[in-house]
Amino acid sequence: MIIDCHCHAGRGDGMTAPWDTDAPLDRYLERARRAGIDRTVLFAAFHSDFAVANHEVARIVASQPGRFYGFAFVDSVHDRGRIHDLVRTAVARYGFCGIKVHRYHGDMTREVCDAARAFGLPVLYDVMGKVSSIEMFASRYRDVPFIIPHLGSFKDDWRAHTAIIDHLIRHPNVFTDTSGVLRFDLLEEAVKRAGAHKVLFGSDGPWLHPGVELAKVRELRLSPRDERLVLADNWLRITAKSRARAHRVQPSVRGLTAPPPPRTAPPAIAREASFEMP
Question: Which domains does the chain have, with CATH numbers?
């Protein structure tokens, strides 16, 4: 089995860049099929109201429950005070099995970590190169798995790529994904030094080609056992408990009719977005 642990889906409402405008899956799914990718983890595009965006992702996941898993996207700043409720809805109603956070919206908070702990969920958190922050949350929430995508930074940031390897080695609950890593030698070094059990395959679809991203994993020339770890087994291990709970929910598209009402006076999300992909 091959699981893509990092893919966006649905529509954003910012319309300043691809990642807050639209994340269509039609071409992604065809490319993933040709590449042999069996399952995909979906979370929303950037949005001013993640209650609405997560509901849209839930409908997509429910349309092909044998193909997709769902993660709840939360904004650590604008969702302050309601993150627990957002995650509870995602788990109890949508059958989601993880949380997605991006530093573009704000740094990691105790509220996010407490929700992850309360519901037994992993957190996929894009630190946008601020690798030093991993020490703060990983050491205080050792029972929460943290997946840091892009080997620490989507940009061609060799400093972040190099620095995160130490965190992968020292923290049992810190992992990374392969999506968008330009410096292949540092991805290779991460696997060599931290071990294949700390690395997950991700594509950052639909904006990056999943077949191209998968080819990087193939080029690592891992042993069959280690390749299985990267391509599926690590993610299955990290999410074992949350997937078991999600399986008991099994929502249907028909049951996910009207989206939640938008919150009053949603914050503007038009920000300068040229620096990094989500």
Answer: 3-247 (3.20.20.140)
